Protein backbone atom coordinates (compact mmCIF):
# COMPACT_ATOMS: atom_id res chain seq x y z
CA UNK A 1 0.00 0.00 0.00
CA UNK A 2 1.20 3.48 -0.84
CA UNK A 3 0.25 6.15 1.67
CA UNK A 4 -0.70 9.57 0.27
CA UNK A 5 -1.57 11.16 3.60
CA UNK A 6 1.83 12.84 3.87
CA UNK A 7 1.77 14.19 0.31
CA UNK A 8 -0.23 17.24 1.39
CA UNK A 9 2.57 18.24 3.80
CA UNK A 10 4.10 20.05 0.85
CA UNK A 11 1.31 22.63 1.19
CA UNK A 12 2.00 22.98 4.91
CA UNK A 13 5.70 23.65 4.34
CA UNK A 14 4.93 26.37 1.80
CA UNK A 15 2.32 27.86 4.09
CA UNK A 16 4.80 28.30 6.96
CA UNK A 17 7.31 30.33 4.94
CA UNK A 18 4.86 32.45 2.93
CA UNK A 19 2.75 33.21 6.01
CA UNK A 20 5.83 34.80 7.60
CA UNK A 21 5.82 37.30 4.73
CA UNK A 22 2.04 37.71 4.84
CA UNK A 23 1.83 36.20 1.34
CA UNK A 24 0.02 32.90 1.82
CA UNK A 25 -2.55 33.04 -1.02
CA UNK A 26 -5.42 31.62 1.06
CA UNK A 27 -4.85 34.14 3.87
CA UNK A 28 -2.98 37.28 2.87
CA UNK A 29 -1.80 39.44 5.77
CA UNK A 30 -1.55 42.93 4.29
CA UNK A 31 0.00 44.70 7.35
CA UNK A 32 2.87 42.18 7.56
CA UNK A 33 3.46 42.42 3.81
CA UNK A 34 3.56 46.23 3.95
CA UNK A 35 5.92 46.13 6.95
CA UNK A 36 8.44 43.95 5.11
CA UNK A 37 8.11 45.99 1.93
CA UNK A 38 8.86 49.23 3.81
CA UNK A 39 11.77 47.51 5.57
CA UNK A 40 13.19 46.30 2.25
CA UNK A 41 12.75 49.68 0.56
CA UNK A 42 14.62 51.42 3.40
CA UNK A 43 17.36 48.81 3.19
CA UNK A 44 17.68 49.24 -0.59
CA UNK A 45 17.94 53.03 -0.20
CA UNK A 46 20.74 52.58 2.38
CA UNK A 47 22.44 50.17 -0.01
CA UNK A 48 22.18 52.70 -2.84
CA UNK A 49 23.58 55.38 -0.53
CA UNK A 50 26.58 53.13 0.20
CA UNK A 51 27.05 52.49 -3.54
CA UNK A 52 27.05 56.21 -4.39
CA UNK A 53 29.50 57.08 -1.59
CA UNK A 54 31.95 54.38 -2.68
CA UNK A 55 31.46 54.49 -6.43
CA UNK A 56 35.12 55.33 -7.01
CA UNK A 57 36.27 52.13 -5.26
CA UNK A 58 35.62 49.10 -7.52
CA UNK A 59 36.13 46.53 -4.75
CA UNK A 60 33.44 48.13 -2.58
CA UNK A 61 31.11 48.47 -5.57
CA UNK A 62 31.42 44.73 -6.27
CA UNK A 63 30.80 43.92 -2.59
CA UNK A 64 27.75 46.19 -2.57
CA UNK A 65 26.21 44.64 -5.69
CA UNK A 66 26.88 41.11 -4.41
CA UNK A 67 24.62 41.75 -1.43
CA UNK A 68 22.09 44.22 -2.71
CA UNK A 69 21.18 42.50 -5.98
CA UNK A 70 19.92 39.60 -3.85
CA UNK A 71 17.89 41.86 -1.56
CA UNK A 72 16.42 43.70 -4.55
CA UNK A 73 15.44 40.33 -6.02
CA UNK A 74 13.63 39.47 -2.78
CA UNK A 75 11.63 42.69 -2.98
CA UNK A 76 10.70 41.91 -6.58
CA UNK A 77 9.64 38.36 -5.69
CA UNK A 78 7.42 39.66 -2.90
CA UNK A 79 5.61 42.07 -5.23
CA UNK A 80 5.13 39.37 -7.89
CA UNK A 81 3.72 36.94 -5.31
CA UNK A 82 1.39 39.59 -3.88
CA UNK A 83 0.07 40.39 -7.34
CA UNK A 84 -0.64 36.70 -7.98
CA UNK A 85 -2.26 35.82 -4.64
CA UNK A 86 -5.86 35.72 -5.90
CA UNK A 87 -5.18 33.44 -8.86
CA UNK A 88 -2.93 31.20 -6.77
CA UNK A 89 -5.68 30.85 -4.16
CA UNK A 90 -7.88 29.45 -6.95
CA UNK A 91 -4.96 27.26 -8.04
CA UNK A 92 -4.65 25.76 -4.54
CA UNK A 93 -8.38 25.11 -4.40
CA UNK A 94 -8.21 23.38 -7.79
CA UNK A 95 -5.54 20.90 -6.65
CA UNK A 96 -7.07 20.02 -3.27
CA UNK A 97 -8.55 16.77 -4.55
CA UNK A 98 -5.19 15.64 -5.95
CA UNK A 99 -4.05 14.73 -2.44
CA UNK A 100 -6.89 12.24 -1.92
CA UNK A 101 -6.07 8.53 -2.22
CA UNK A 102 -9.38 7.93 -4.02
CA UNK A 103 -8.12 10.01 -6.95
CA UNK A 104 -5.67 7.28 -7.96
CA UNK A 105 -6.69 3.93 -9.43
CA UNK A 106 -3.54 1.87 -8.92
CA UNK A 107 -0.11 1.85 -7.32
CA UNK A 108 1.64 3.04 -10.50
CA UNK A 109 -0.33 6.28 -10.47
CA UNK A 110 0.41 6.85 -6.80
CA UNK A 111 4.11 6.20 -7.24
CA UNK A 112 4.27 8.49 -10.28
CA UNK A 113 2.79 11.36 -8.29
CA UNK A 114 4.78 10.70 -5.12
CA UNK A 115 8.02 10.74 -7.11
CA UNK A 116 7.54 14.43 -7.95
CA UNK A 117 5.99 15.20 -4.57
CA UNK A 118 9.08 13.84 -2.82
CA UNK A 119 11.38 15.88 -5.06
CA UNK A 120 9.46 19.01 -4.07
CA UNK A 121 9.67 18.17 -0.36
CA UNK A 122 13.41 17.48 -0.56
CA UNK A 123 13.98 20.75 -2.42
CA UNK A 124 12.11 22.77 0.20
CA UNK A 125 13.97 21.22 3.13
CA UNK A 126 17.44 21.45 1.60
CA UNK A 127 17.03 24.82 -0.12
CA UNK A 128 15.52 26.71 2.80
CA UNK A 129 17.93 25.14 5.30
CA UNK A 130 20.87 26.10 3.08
CA UNK A 131 19.48 29.62 2.74
CA UNK A 132 19.20 29.97 6.52
CA UNK A 133 22.75 28.71 7.17
CA UNK A 134 24.25 30.85 4.39
CA UNK A 135 22.39 33.98 5.50
CA UNK A 136 23.45 33.50 9.14
CA UNK A 137 27.11 32.89 8.34
CA UNK A 138 27.14 35.76 5.86
CA UNK A 139 25.71 38.12 8.50
CA UNK A 140 28.29 37.18 11.13
CA UNK A 141 31.31 37.07 8.79
CA UNK A 142 32.09 40.72 9.64
CA UNK A 143 32.25 39.88 13.35
CA UNK A 144 34.45 36.85 12.64
CA UNK A 145 36.81 38.97 10.54
CA UNK A 146 37.05 41.66 13.24
CA UNK A 147 37.28 39.28 16.19
CA UNK A 148 40.85 40.25 17.07
CA UNK A 149 39.97 43.94 16.79
CA UNK A 150 36.97 43.42 19.08
CA UNK A 151 39.16 41.73 21.68
CA UNK A 152 41.75 44.52 21.55
CA UNK A 153 39.15 47.28 21.72
CA UNK A 154 40.04 48.74 18.30
CA UNK A 155 36.84 47.64 16.66
CA UNK A 156 35.74 49.60 13.59
CA UNK A 157 32.03 50.06 13.04
CA UNK A 158 31.80 47.90 9.91
CA UNK A 159 28.23 46.76 9.32
CA UNK A 160 27.36 43.14 8.36
CA UNK A 161 26.02 44.36 4.99
CA UNK A 162 27.32 47.08 2.63
CA UNK A 163 24.80 49.76 3.54
CA UNK A 164 25.20 53.34 4.72
CA UNK A 165 22.56 54.67 7.16
CA UNK A 166 21.38 58.25 7.01
CA UNK A 167 23.64 59.13 9.95
CA UNK A 168 27.19 58.48 11.14
CA UNK A 169 27.84 55.63 13.58
CA UNK A 170 30.09 56.97 16.34
CA UNK A 171 29.37 54.77 19.36
CA UNK A 172 28.74 51.13 20.19
CA UNK A 173 25.08 51.56 21.17
CA UNK A 174 24.19 53.09 17.80
CA UNK A 175 26.17 50.39 16.05
CA UNK A 176 24.34 47.61 17.92
CA UNK A 177 20.96 49.19 17.10
CA UNK A 178 21.78 49.23 13.37
CA UNK A 179 23.08 45.64 13.52
CA UNK A 180 19.87 44.57 15.25
CA UNK A 181 17.87 46.27 12.50
CA UNK A 182 19.89 44.40 9.88
CA UNK A 183 19.43 41.13 11.79
CA UNK A 184 15.88 40.94 10.44
CA UNK A 185 17.46 40.20 7.08
CA UNK A 186 18.20 36.63 8.20
CA UNK A 187 14.59 35.33 8.27
CA UNK A 188 13.71 37.68 5.43
CA UNK A 189 16.38 36.20 3.15
CA UNK A 190 15.40 32.66 4.15
CA UNK A 191 11.68 33.17 3.54
CA UNK A 192 11.76 35.99 0.97
CA UNK A 193 14.36 34.46 -1.32
CA UNK A 194 13.56 30.78 -0.85
CA UNK A 195 9.83 30.91 -0.01
CA UNK A 196 8.42 32.16 -3.35
CA UNK A 197 10.80 29.88 -5.25
CA UNK A 198 9.75 26.87 -3.19
CA UNK A 199 6.06 27.62 -3.73
CA UNK A 200 6.28 28.06 -7.50
CA UNK A 201 8.57 25.09 -7.98
CA UNK A 202 6.47 22.74 -5.87
CA UNK A 203 3.35 23.75 -7.78
CA UNK A 204 5.17 23.08 -11.07
CA UNK A 205 6.28 19.69 -9.75
CA UNK A 206 2.69 18.97 -8.74
CA UNK A 207 1.63 19.52 -12.35
CA UNK A 208 4.46 17.25 -13.54
CA UNK A 209 3.24 14.55 -11.16
CA UNK A 210 -0.34 14.86 -12.37
CA UNK A 211 0.76 14.67 -16.01
CA UNK A 212 2.65 11.46 -15.18
CA UNK A 213 -0.48 10.11 -13.47
CA UNK A 214 -2.58 10.99 -16.55
CA UNK A 215 -0.18 8.99 -18.75
CA UNK A 216 -0.79 5.93 -16.58
CA UNK A 217 -4.55 6.58 -16.61
CA UNK A 218 -4.54 6.62 -20.41
CA UNK A 219 -2.87 3.21 -20.53
CA UNK A 220 -5.36 1.83 -18.00
CA UNK A 221 -8.68 3.50 -18.82
CA UNK A 222 -8.64 3.17 -22.60
CA UNK A 223 -8.46 -0.60 -22.28
CA UNK A 224 -11.92 -0.59 -20.71
CA UNK A 225 -14.27 -0.88 -23.69
CA UNK A 226 -17.50 -0.77 -21.66
CA UNK A 227 -17.05 2.80 -20.41
CA UNK A 228 -14.85 4.02 -23.23
CA UNK A 229 -16.80 7.21 -23.95
CA UNK A 230 -16.74 8.43 -20.32
CA UNK A 231 -13.05 7.58 -20.04
CA UNK A 232 -12.14 9.55 -23.16
CA UNK A 233 -14.15 12.51 -21.88
CA UNK A 234 -12.44 12.43 -18.48
CA UNK A 235 -8.98 12.20 -20.09
CA UNK A 236 -9.63 15.17 -22.38
CA UNK A 237 -11.02 17.29 -19.54
CA UNK A 238 -8.12 16.36 -17.26
CA UNK A 239 -5.60 17.23 -19.94
CA UNK A 240 -7.25 20.61 -20.47
CA UNK A 241 -7.28 21.21 -16.69
CA UNK A 242 -3.54 20.53 -16.35
CA UNK A 243 -2.75 22.74 -19.34
CA UNK A 244 -4.71 25.54 -17.65
CA UNK A 245 -2.78 25.10 -14.37
CA UNK A 246 0.57 25.16 -16.18
CA UNK A 247 -0.42 28.32 -18.06
CA UNK A 248 -1.42 29.98 -14.78
CA UNK A 249 2.08 29.40 -13.41
CA UNK A 250 3.76 30.54 -16.61
CA UNK A 251 1.64 33.68 -17.10
CA UNK A 252 1.86 34.84 -13.48
CA UNK A 253 5.46 33.98 -12.64
CA UNK A 254 7.44 34.31 -15.89
CA UNK A 255 8.78 37.67 -14.63
CA UNK A 256 9.93 35.94 -11.43
CA UNK A 257 11.73 33.37 -13.59
CA UNK A 258 13.31 36.20 -15.59
CA UNK A 259 14.41 37.97 -12.42
CA UNK A 260 15.92 34.76 -11.08
CA UNK A 261 17.71 34.02 -14.36
CA UNK A 262 19.27 37.48 -14.75
CA UNK A 263 19.99 37.76 -11.04
CA UNK A 264 21.80 34.41 -11.05
CA UNK A 265 24.07 35.49 -13.92
CA UNK A 266 25.27 38.55 -12.00
CA UNK A 267 25.22 37.04 -8.49
CA UNK A 268 27.26 34.03 -9.55
CA UNK A 269 29.81 36.26 -11.27
CA UNK A 270 30.10 38.74 -8.37
CA UNK A 271 30.12 36.11 -5.62
CA UNK A 272 32.82 34.05 -7.32
CA UNK A 273 34.90 37.19 -7.71
CA UNK A 274 34.52 37.96 -4.00
CA UNK A 275 35.36 34.39 -3.06
CA UNK A 276 38.52 34.38 -5.20
CA UNK A 277 39.58 37.77 -3.81
CA UNK A 278 39.06 36.75 -0.19
CA UNK A 279 40.73 33.37 -0.63
CA UNK A 280 43.95 35.25 -1.42
CA UNK A 281 43.77 37.32 1.79
CA UNK A 282 45.01 36.44 5.27
CA UNK A 283 41.78 37.36 7.09
CA UNK A 284 41.29 34.17 9.08
CA UNK A 285 40.05 33.23 12.55
CA UNK A 286 41.83 30.19 13.96
CA UNK A 287 42.97 29.38 10.43
CA UNK A 288 39.44 29.51 9.00
CA UNK A 289 38.45 32.05 6.37
CA UNK A 290 34.78 32.56 7.21
CA UNK A 291 34.25 34.92 4.30
CA UNK A 292 35.20 32.23 1.79
CA UNK A 293 32.89 29.72 3.47
CA UNK A 294 30.05 32.26 3.48
CA UNK A 295 30.54 33.00 -0.21
CA UNK A 296 30.68 29.28 -1.03
CA UNK A 297 27.33 28.73 0.69
CA UNK A 298 25.97 31.81 -1.08
CA UNK A 299 26.99 30.31 -4.44
CA UNK A 300 25.39 26.97 -3.52
CA UNK A 301 22.08 28.73 -2.74
CA UNK A 302 22.07 30.69 -5.99
CA UNK A 303 23.10 27.73 -8.16
CA UNK A 304 20.72 25.26 -6.52
CA UNK A 305 17.76 27.59 -7.07
CA UNK A 306 18.37 28.17 -10.77
CA UNK A 307 19.22 24.49 -11.28
CA UNK A 308 15.89 23.57 -9.68
CA UNK A 309 14.03 25.96 -11.99
CA UNK A 310 15.73 24.55 -15.07
CA UNK A 311 15.35 20.91 -13.98
CA UNK A 312 11.64 21.35 -13.26
CA UNK A 313 11.18 23.14 -16.58
CA UNK A 314 12.79 20.10 -18.21
CA UNK A 315 10.46 17.74 -16.29
CA UNK A 316 7.41 19.72 -17.41
CA UNK A 317 8.50 19.47 -21.04
CA UNK A 318 9.14 15.72 -20.72
CA UNK A 319 5.86 14.87 -18.98
CA UNK A 320 3.66 17.06 -21.20
CA UNK A 321 5.08 15.59 -24.40
CA UNK A 322 5.02 12.09 -22.87
CA UNK A 323 1.22 12.17 -23.05
CA UNK A 324 1.51 12.01 -26.83
CA UNK A 325 3.24 8.62 -26.66
CA UNK A 326 0.72 7.30 -24.13
CA UNK A 327 -2.18 8.32 -26.37
CA UNK A 328 -0.54 6.99 -29.52
CA UNK A 329 -0.02 3.56 -27.93
CA UNK A 330 -3.69 3.25 -26.94
CA UNK A 331 -5.09 2.00 -30.31
CA UNK A 332 -6.90 5.30 -30.69
CA UNK A 333 -7.47 4.67 -34.41
CA UNK A 334 -9.71 1.62 -33.85
CA UNK A 335 -12.59 3.61 -32.35
CA UNK A 336 -15.49 5.73 -33.49
CA UNK A 337 -14.65 8.91 -35.45
CA UNK A 338 -15.74 11.17 -32.58
CA UNK A 339 -13.41 9.45 -30.10
CA UNK A 340 -10.60 9.32 -32.61
CA UNK A 341 -10.96 13.05 -33.24
CA UNK A 342 -10.82 13.89 -29.52
CA UNK A 343 -7.73 11.79 -28.91
CA UNK A 344 -5.99 13.10 -32.04
CA UNK A 345 -6.60 16.66 -30.81
CA UNK A 346 -4.98 15.73 -27.48
CA UNK A 347 -2.01 14.23 -29.32
CA UNK A 348 -1.66 17.32 -31.48
CA UNK A 349 -1.74 19.57 -28.40
CA UNK A 350 0.89 17.38 -26.73
CA UNK A 351 3.24 18.10 -29.63
CA UNK A 352 3.59 21.58 -28.12
CA UNK A 353 5.16 21.08 -24.69
CA UNK A 354 4.13 22.94 -21.56
CA UNK A 355 6.99 25.21 -20.59
CA UNK A 356 8.21 27.70 -18.01
CA UNK A 357 9.90 30.72 -19.55
CA UNK A 358 12.05 33.57 -18.29
CA UNK A 359 9.89 36.56 -19.18
CA UNK A 360 8.66 34.83 -22.37
CA UNK A 361 12.23 35.17 -23.73
CA UNK A 362 13.75 31.73 -23.16
CA UNK A 363 12.48 28.34 -22.04
CA UNK A 364 13.78 27.03 -18.73
CA UNK A 365 15.55 23.73 -19.33
CA UNK A 366 18.87 22.08 -18.51
CA UNK A 367 20.34 23.67 -21.64
CA UNK A 368 19.37 27.06 -20.23
CA UNK A 369 21.18 26.25 -16.98
CA UNK A 370 24.36 25.52 -18.94
CA UNK A 371 24.01 28.82 -20.81
CA UNK A 372 23.53 30.75 -17.55
CA UNK A 373 26.69 29.30 -16.01
CA UNK A 374 28.73 29.91 -19.18
CA UNK A 375 27.54 33.53 -19.40
CA UNK A 376 28.32 34.13 -15.74
CA UNK A 377 31.86 32.72 -16.14
CA UNK A 378 32.40 34.99 -19.16
CA UNK A 379 31.34 38.02 -17.09
CA UNK A 380 33.65 36.88 -14.27
CA UNK A 381 36.60 36.84 -16.66
CA UNK A 382 35.79 40.37 -17.84
CA UNK A 383 35.31 41.58 -14.24
CA UNK A 384 38.68 40.21 -13.09
CA UNK A 385 40.45 41.95 -15.97
CA UNK A 386 38.56 45.19 -15.37
CA UNK A 387 38.85 45.41 -11.57
Automatic annotation (TrEMBL):
The chain crosses the membrane at residues 31-48, 60-80, 113-140, 172-191, 256-276, 288-312. It holds the Pfam family 7tm_6. GO terms for cellular component: plasma membrane. GO terms for biological process: signal transduction. GO terms for molecular function: odorant binding; olfactory receptor activity. It is found in: Cell membrane. Signal peptide: none annotated. The keyword Signal does not apply. Keywords: Cell membrane, Membrane, Olfaction, Receptor, Sensory transduction, Transducer, Transmembrane, Transmembrane helix. The keyword Transmembrane applies. It is a multi-pass membrane protein. Belongs to the insect chemoreceptor superfamily. Heteromeric odorant receptor channel (TC 1.A.69) family. This is Odorant receptor.
Amino acid sequence: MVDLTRASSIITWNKWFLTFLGLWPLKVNQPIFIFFCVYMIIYCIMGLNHLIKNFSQPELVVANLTDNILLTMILGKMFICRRSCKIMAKFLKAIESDFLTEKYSNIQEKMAYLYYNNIALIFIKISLSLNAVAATLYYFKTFFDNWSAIMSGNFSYDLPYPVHPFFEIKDMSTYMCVCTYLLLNLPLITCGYGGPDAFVLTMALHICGQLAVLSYKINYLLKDRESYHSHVTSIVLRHYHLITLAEILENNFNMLFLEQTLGTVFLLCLTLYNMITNSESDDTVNGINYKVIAFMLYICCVLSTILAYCYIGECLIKESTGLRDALYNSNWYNNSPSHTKLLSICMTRSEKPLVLTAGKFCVLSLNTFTSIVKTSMAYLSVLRNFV
